[in-house]
Design a protein that fits this description.
The protein has a two-stranded antiparallel sheet with strand order 1-2. A hairpin with a 2-residue loop joins β1 (14-15) and β2. α1 packs antiparallel against α2 (24-55) and α2 packs antiparallel against α3 (69-96). It has helices at residues 2-10, 24-55, 69-96, 100-110, and strands spanning 14-15, 18-19. Helices cover 72% and strands 4% of the residues. The longest helix is centred in the middle third of the chain and has 32 residues, at 24-55.
Length: 111
């Protein structure tokens, strides 16, 4: 959620076709500050939850533990959130620091 809010705030840093006051580093800091801990939290949650589910109960070794659809979906949710957060970082980076080829296309149109 913070990553999306950071991208929404970033649009106010553009004024008359240029970036104002180099505040894009603030937005990239917010993006990096949410992506890196988000991946650690997602991986930690999935590992922790799988360990808890597989070690809960008393299994004699003959029974097999089955992951049901709700459990799999529950494990996918934090991974999807981390992927969306990573996509926001890539979008923010490409907006604030465009490639030289992209810049040359826009500068040739202005002339």
């Amino acid at each position: 959620m913070l990553s999306g809010i950071g991208l929404m705030v970033a649009r106010f840093y553009f004024a008359a076709g240029h970036l104002g006051y180099r505040k894009e580093y603030t937005v990239l800091g917010v993006q990096l500050g949410t992506v890196i801990p988000g991946w650690f939290a997602s991986i930690g949650f999935v590992v922790w939850y799988v360990v808890i589910v597989t070690t809960s109960g008393s299994y004699s070794g003959v029974e097999q533990l089955h992951f049901t659809v709700p459990i799999v979906l529950y494990l996918i949710l934090p991974v999807v959130a981390a992927l969306i957060n990573s996509a926001n970082l890539i979008i923010a980076f490409s907006l604030f620091f465009p490639s030289p080829g992209k810049l040359s296309r826009y500068s040739s149109r202005a002339i």
